[in-house]
């Protein structure tokens, strides 16, 4: 009998979302994407935030502004309801590609308002890329809002990672975030892959408090991996490189590597 062909693994689409700014969403998306690519996975990053932080994680400011002012941005693709395949740029790292953002993303809610099936426009734009099997993971960085654009991102994703800063204000609005996700059950069956605790300073007890608060949400998984406060992250951002490229054995680089392994498991 002829040997059966091995079925190609399905592309997994994961978004990084939190309505609270400063949670480390873009940093987690960028560094996790890099670590997955180092592990041999093919990764597409989608910069869904007008602040361009995900794009700035891999390209210098001049290049990011050049991409943002071009016609090949996520905003243009969504506005025109076009397949994202033609909007992908290569990063300097093998197996890691990007769909760049633009400051015009501030207008995307307005653009979506009058569209038919407006909640699923991004999902439609991504479908060709997913069906191609070109990537193992698609990681989407969402802005810190809860509007129609974020609903689009959640409807396009299979699962969500919710980064939360270990600080007194880090949990502000967390219940609203979970209620918002639960309220989308008629639109999408997205699951919460896990809560990622970031900016942990063990000289303070906020990490322990964070675990205790999250323990109240019995259905919500918290990643075993967490990310410490690390100045190397800021230096890496300043250099527009992943933290492991800036300094391979720094604590946060090893933590993002551990997180990637946990996610792949």
Explain what this protein looks like in three dimensions.
The chain is an alpha/beta fold and 265 residues long. It has a domain at 12-159 and 231-258: 3-Layer(aba) Sandwich (Rossmann fold). 40% of the residues lie in helices and 14% in strands. It is built from twelve helices and seven strands. The chain has a seven-stranded mixed sheet, with helices on both faces. Strand 6 (159-165), helix 8 (174-182) and strand 7 form a beta-alpha-beta unit. Helix 1 (25-38) crosses helix 12 (251-264). The longest helix is centred in the N-terminal third of the chain and has 14 residues, at 25-38. 43% of the residues are buried.
Layout of strands and helices, then pairs:
Elements: E1 12-16, H1 25-38, E2 43-47, H2 53-56, H3 61-68, H4 74-80, E3 89-90, E4 96-99, H5 108-113, H6 121-132, E5 137-141, H7 148-156, E6 159-165, H8 174-182, E7 191-198, H9 206-214, H10 231-239, H11 243-246, H12 251-264
Parallel strand pairs: 1-5, 1-6, 2-4, 2-5, 6-7
Antiparallel strand pairs: 3-4
CATH architecture name of one domain:
3-Layer(aba) Sandwich
What is the overall number of helices? 12
CATH topology of one domain: Rossmann fold
**What Rg, in angstroms, do the CA atoms define?**
18 Å
| Content of β-strand | 5-15%
* Anisotropy-based shape: globular
Number of beta strands: 7
Distance between the termini: 33 Å
Structural class: alpha/beta
Query: What's the pLDDT, averaged over the residues?
Result: 92
> Low-confidence stretches at least 5 residues in length (pLDDT < 50)?
none
